[in-house]
Structure formats: C-alpha cells, structure tokens
Amino acid sequence: MAHTTTTSPDPHTRTLPWGASQPSENFAEAIKALDTYKQRDPSKVIVRFKAVGNAPIMKQNFYKITSSNRFQAVIQFLRKELGWQAGEPLFTYVNLAFSPAPDDTVSNLFKSFATDGHLIVNYSTTAAWG
Amino acid sequence: MSSYGTTRHAPSPAGAASNKERVTDYHTTLFRRLTWEGTVPLEIRVDPKELPANSDRGLECYYIQAPRVSYLPLLMPEIRRFLMDVVFDDAAAKVLKEDDWWFESAEGTLLKWHWPIGLIYDNHTISTSVRPSSSQLQTTPSPMRLILHLASPPTEKLLQSPSAEACKLSFMGQLKEADFLRWGSTKRMTALRQADQDGLWEGIRDHNFDHYWRVASKVTPTAGAARPQSPVPSATASLHTRPPSADPAGQPERDGAYNVRSVPVRIYLPDGPVLQDLVPPLLEDGSPNTLAHFLTTHIPLLFPPQPHPPNSTHRHPNNSASHGSELAYALIQGVRSPPEAEMAWLGACMAGADGWLNVCIGICS
C-alpha cells in the first residue's frame, strides 16, 4: 500500500541520526557558486576568418561573436556565410595550427589563442593541418 | 627518501637531471604509468525499449574495465561482438547499423565520442557530487551505468561521428592544441613522421604504454629537471616545500615542464561549463604555480583565497580553513589532488594521452 511513501520524509531533507545526509551551509554556498559560473558570458569577441588555399574569400572577414558560443556554432556560421551545402567538406583551424574540439567555447579559445585582439580562424576545403 | 611525493622531488638528493639528459626520471615514469594503467568500471546496458525482438533478455548488460586514456569508439568492436554473439539473433544483427549507436549515462547525459573515457567517468563523479540524495553514502566504487541506444543518434549534439577515424582526428587536434599552448607553435607535433603520429593513436588503441610513450616523449615536456632561476623570495615557505638538495643546479632544460608558455589545462565544473585559460608554470615571483593558486585564480568562489601561502605544508593551529570547511575538491585522473601540487608537474605526469590536464571539480558534501 501507499503508507510507506506517505509517511517517509523526502529523501533530500531526511536527517540521519549521524547527520550524514544533511546538506551543509558549505554545500549550499558551493551550489550558489556553481550557478554563478554557469551564467553565460554575454560579451562578444572578434573572430577573423582567413581563407586557406583555394577556399572562397568572404566579403567581410571580421565578425563579433558571442563568446559563450561553442566553436561548432562558428563552423555553422561560416558554412552559412559561404553558402556551403551539408556534406561539402570544410576544415577549420585556429592560428594555422590545429582544429579545436567543436564543443570548446569561443571564450576559451579566445583567452588562450587570440592574436592582436582577434581569434583567427582559418578555413580550407582540404585537410591542411589535420 | 621523500615519501610518495606529488611534487617534483628528485628521487636522489643529487638530482636526477644533471647526469641523465633525456632519460625520463623514475618518478615521472611512475606517475605516467599509473595514469596510463588507470581504468574505470563501466556497465553498458542496451536501452530495454530498443532491444530487438528475440533478444536474449537478461544478458543485455555488459561489464568492462575500460582504460582511462581510451575512447568509446575503441570499445565498440568488443561491445558489438558481445551483443551480436550473445544477445541479438541473426535477423536483428543484420538490420542493426553500428553507425546509429550512441551512449547516454543512466541519468540521461549524452556521452561524447571524442572525450577520453576517464574524463567521462570523472565528469560523472562530480555531477553526482552535486546531487545530495544520491550515492554520497557509497563506500565502494561502483560502475558508471551507460545506456546504449541502437537508433536515432542526436547527431547535432554528439558533434562527431562514432567512427574510430573521426575520434583519431579529434585526438590529434587536441594534441596539437596542447602543443601550441605549451610552445607557441605545433612544430614538435608536425615534425613527427606520419608513422609516429599514427603510433600515438595505435598506442592508445592497443593500450600499449611503451608504444605510446616512445613517440609521446618527443612532444611532452620533461618533469624532473627545470628549476626557476630566481630564488623563491619567501624563505619560510620554500623551506617547507623544496629541500635545497632536491634542486639541480644547472640551467633549466629547454623541454622542461617549467619552461612551457602555458600548461594545457581544462577545468570541468559539475554539469558544465568547461573553463580554459593560459596557465603559466611559474608565477611572476618565480615560484611554481600550484593547483591551489590556479583554482583560486580561476574559480575563487569555490576555492577562496587562503590567509597564508597555499603551498605551505605547515598549517597554523588557529587556521579555520581546515579540511572540513572546504567547499570543493579537485579530481585529476580520478584522484583527489593536493593543493600544493605544481601545475607544471601535473601537466607533465598526470595529463591524459591527448596532452590535456583535466581538472574535475567536485562539491564536498
């Protein structure tokens, strides 16, 4: 019957005799801190696109992109600007050196790799530094 | 003798670096070996709603002790063989396409193909640490429960295809990014012959430590040798952390961990986000950047500044910041890491096979 569930206290607030599951003040403070770090950074950074090899050149090279975006969003943006169809190969690199993980954020990449205040993203139709 | 030191104490008072050149010292190899041999228990269960007709129910669960440095796509052949041999019948085996398979944690978190398995596991551990009702009373390590789905992969969220080839490309990208952070270019990586580059990945695939490190030692900094040239200003603090006898007198090694521009580090917070920034191995005063200093710099709300130098091993009796009042802890390769550990050393000895030091932050209950 349902009597066990109605009389049993909520597991989150249940206090054991030895006080083990009591969320402490510290725990609450830590959760609050995590919420602060989860807030998305609304600031924008300048991304500079540079074509490599025979990749088409863009009309505009500098774009302000929200820094909390993932690199995947930058790739999608670039594909759209170039009018690239799904399945058409496009390889992207930072500083002519490496392909970032698609789930890394623009903010993280900018902090680590910005040159003269820009994050330089190279794009190519063939694998260049992969 | 030093105890099980996590800082870069040389094993002998004379200092191992002065006469051994590029021979990797004992402690470095030991910790690299421990990192490499680390495994995590996984329970892989096919989503019961997706089990094909005539499957042998009751056997749809597979247990594996997976290397931390490996990747989910590399486990697939073994899992597939088990499922095809034991669970699915021939008709189902013909229809199922492995390209459509994907993993979730039991809690519903999508598991990415391109994350090292150790990182997936530690990330799961810290996510659990923020849910007070669950598992805090667990005393023995239990397997992480994975759900294997057989259809409709959420491709746009997985970001990468499940193929081992895509995983290898992503792995090489991470190695190059780490190389660029350390030295300001990827010269070391691009100087490797193709066979050597492939050898790194084969070392992971075959879980062969020697095979991997034969190549990796050409791009990874050495841990034991370098020493800041300027003396550490705080005499009392330095007496505690570095016996003078442990410091080799010579020039810092060019490839030394303390000479890199930045240590490749990422901080993982429970349920996100991931933080990355430049992490110099030495502070402006020439003293080594420690884990405590690093965490206080980047996530001060979880690691508030301490009233006295964090790398001091001596605790003042009146100091209220005792172990019990800590808000959070740092998990590196599944190990709660001491605050006085030096970032350069961690980067050289405790990084994953992709060159990255992953610092997962758990919340103290």
TrEMBL record, chain A:
InterPro entries: Atg12 (IPR007242), Ubiquitin-like_domsf (IPR029071). The keyword Membrane applies. GO terms for molecular function: Atg8-family ligase activity. It is a peripheral membrane protein. Transmembrane segments: none annotated. CDD domains: Ubl_ATG12 (cd01612). The keyword Nucleus does not apply. Residues 1-22 are annotated as: Disordered. Pfam families: APG12 (PF04110). One of its GO terms (cellular component) is Atg12-Atg5-Atg16 complex. It comes from the Eukaryota. Gene3D superfamilies: Phosphatidylinositol 3-kinase Catalytic Subunit, Chain A, domain 1. It is found in: Preautophagosomal structure membrane. Ubiquitin-like protein involved in cytoplasm to vacuole transport (Cvt), autophagy vesicles formation, mitophagy, and nucleophagy. Conjugation with ATG5 through a ubiquitin-like conjugating system involving also ATG7 as an E1-like activating enzyme and ATG10 as an E2-like conjugating enzyme, is essential for its function. The ATG12-ATG5 conjugate functions as an E3-like enzyme which is required for lipidation of ATG8 and ATG8 association to the vesicle membranes. Belongs to the ATG12 family. PANTHER family: AUTOPHAGY PROTEIN 12, UBIQUITIN-LIKE PROTEIN ATG12. Forms a conjugate with ATG5. This is Ubiquitin-like protein ATG12. It comes from Lyophyllum shimeji (Hon-shimeji).
Automatic annotation (TrEMBL), chain B:
It is a peripheral membrane protein. The gene is ATG5. GO terms for molecular function: Atg8-family ligase activity. Residues 165-221 form the Autophagy protein ATG5 alpha-helical bundle region domain. Its main location: membrane. Residues 1-21, 220-257 are annotated as: Disordered. This is Autophagy protein 5. One of its GO terms (biological process) is autophagy of mitochondrion. Residues 36-149 form the Autophagy protein ATG5 UblA domain. InterPro entries: Atg5, ATG5_HBR, Atg5_HR, ATG5_UblA, Atg5_UblA_dom_sf, ATG5_UblB. Conjugated with ATG12. GO terms for cellular component: Atg12-Atg5-Atg16 complex; autophagosome; mitochondria-associated endoplasmic reticulum membrane contact site; phagophore; phagophore assembly site membrane. Belongs to the ATG5 family. Keywords: Autophagy, Isopeptide bond, Membrane, Transport, Ubl conjugation. It holds the Pfam family ATG5_UblA. It is found in: Preautophagosomal structure membrane. Residues 263-361 form the Autophagy protein ATG5 UblB domain. Involved in cytoplasm to vacuole transport (Cvt) and autophagic vesicle formation.
